[in-house]
């Protein structure tokens, strides 16, 4: 077995002579090691400062701690974690500030507004403590029970037509309207700003439709009654001297008041402020109005002006407003009805159908800015037809099934 010698002792040549012996020529000699090669291997990592640690009993070096912290902070994974957690915190903060917290506050305000103790504090909710009386107005009407949807019968509730007779014809065609088993109901504002107001009234009368009094009908009819008493319904000579009534709207309403025949005006005058449809399957008691209803107040005690004009409501007094300076009346009404349903249905052995019958569902128009707004207990179907929006019909079929049908409208207001 050959042995390896140190590089300092070179004993053999790498070449041989002709007779097979090693040549002693210096240029032909090779290095030989005296010990095995493994003895000459160095494990440098064992002695490198890079891989050594200070003894545990030695005090920590602040510079090394800082270096360690910096190495953690500058690590890509750490930066990713920071970005992810920062985004999570920001999302939760935005969700709380702009979504969850306002809804919780609103929920608490609604519950407080419906507290009977608040009603006593303010002296009664509006409608129970103050009910103005108006001449030439029907407060409450009742739909014939025979018209409640069963089998093929349908109730077709149409939003604000505003004198758009052409669009109304197209809607009835889309509905495949059949007067033998379909009954039309209008949510008010059938007349006024569109081009064919009197034609809309004629169509409604032709089909023996039901209706409610809207704020536009109310203004025109009140104006007409005043013109009849003053003898100016036919005489137009003094129109130019009317103080404060020279706006385009006032002129249009005077023209419309004169355009209505006595029969058309009488038919509109007979439209109640509130139309009680009675009990409709799966919807409870259903009422049709133009503007809205104050929750917790009986139908016969509702303020007519508020019913025709309301958009918002004061939470403490339940005083309705035609402005948007309070909470939307539909929010308070829905909370009131859901509370009524929950309270009754939670009673032992309470019948669910009976609990539903104790609630009231309102179908209304008037709020074209909010447009279509269908919730559990309020159904808003004024979709701004006269402004180029849509004319909407809410169809109630057998067992209270609901369907929406719409047609596009021309813009008659420029």
Automatic annotation (TrEMBL):
Domain Calcineurin-like phosphoesterase: start-end pairs: 154-367
Gene3D superfamilies associated with the record: 3.60.21.10
MF-aspect GO terms: endopolyphosphatase activity; phosphatase activity
Single GO BP term: polyphosphate catabolic process
Ranges where the record places region Disordered: 1-28
Any one Pfam family match given in the protein's UniProt record, by short name: Metallophos
UniProt xrefs under InterPro entries: Ap4A_hydrolase, Calcineurin-like_PHP, Metallo-depent_PP-like
Top-level taxon in the UniProt lineage: Eukaryota
SUPFAM superfamilies, sorted: Metallo-dependent phosphatases
Protein name: Calcineurin-like phosphoesterase domain-containing protein
């Amino acid at each position: 077995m050959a042995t390896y010698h140190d590089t300092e002792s070179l004993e053999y040549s790498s070449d041989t002579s002709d007779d097979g012996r090693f040549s002693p020529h210096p240029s032909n000699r090779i290095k030989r090691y005296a010990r095995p090669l493994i003895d000459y291997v160095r494990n440098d990592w064992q002695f490198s400062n890079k891989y050594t640690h200070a003894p545990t009993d030695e005090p920590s070096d602040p510079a090394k701690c800082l270096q360690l912290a910096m190495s953690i902070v500058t690590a890509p994974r750490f930066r990713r974690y920071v970005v992810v957690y920062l985004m999570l915190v920001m999302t939760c903060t935005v969700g709380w500030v702009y979504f969850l917290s306002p809804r919780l506050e609103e929920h608490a305000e609604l519950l407080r507004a419906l507290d009977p103790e608040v009603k006593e504090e303010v002296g009664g909710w509006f409608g129970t403590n103050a009910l103005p009386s108006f001449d030439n107005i029907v407060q409450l009407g009742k739909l014939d029970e025979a018209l409640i949807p069963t089998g093929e019968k349908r109730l077709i509730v149409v939003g604000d037509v505003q004198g758009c007779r052409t669009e109304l014809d197209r809607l009835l065609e889309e509905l495949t309207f059949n007067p033998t088993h379909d009954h039309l109901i209008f949510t008010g504002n059938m007349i006024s700003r569109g081009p064919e107001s009197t034609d809309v009234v004629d169509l409604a009368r032709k089909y023996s439709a039901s209706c409610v009094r809207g704020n536009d009908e109310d203004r025109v009819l009140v104006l007409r009654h005043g013109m009849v008493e003053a003898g100016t319904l036919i005489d137009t000579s003094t129109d130019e001297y009317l103080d404060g009534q020279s706006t385009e709207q006032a002129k249009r309403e005077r023209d419309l008041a004169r355009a209505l025949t006595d029969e058309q005006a009488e038919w509109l005058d007979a439209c109640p402020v509130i139309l009680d449809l009675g009990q409709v399957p799966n919807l409870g008691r259903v009422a049709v109005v133009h503007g809205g209803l104050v929750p917790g107040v009986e139908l016969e005690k509702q303020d007519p002006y508020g019913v025709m004009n309301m958009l918002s409501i004061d939470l403490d007094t339940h005083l309705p407003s035609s402005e948007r300076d309070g909470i939307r009346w539909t929010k308070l009404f829905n909370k009131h009805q859901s509370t009524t349903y929950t309270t009754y249905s939670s009673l032992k052995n309470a019948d669910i159908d009976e609990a539903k019958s104790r609630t009231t569902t309102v179908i209304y128009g008037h709020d074209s800015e909010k447009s279509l707004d269908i919730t559990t207990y309020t159904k808003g179907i004024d979709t701004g037809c006269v402004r180029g929006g849509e004319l909407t019909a809410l169809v109630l079929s057998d067992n209270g099934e609901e369907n929406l049908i719409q047609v596009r409208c021309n813009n008659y207001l420029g």
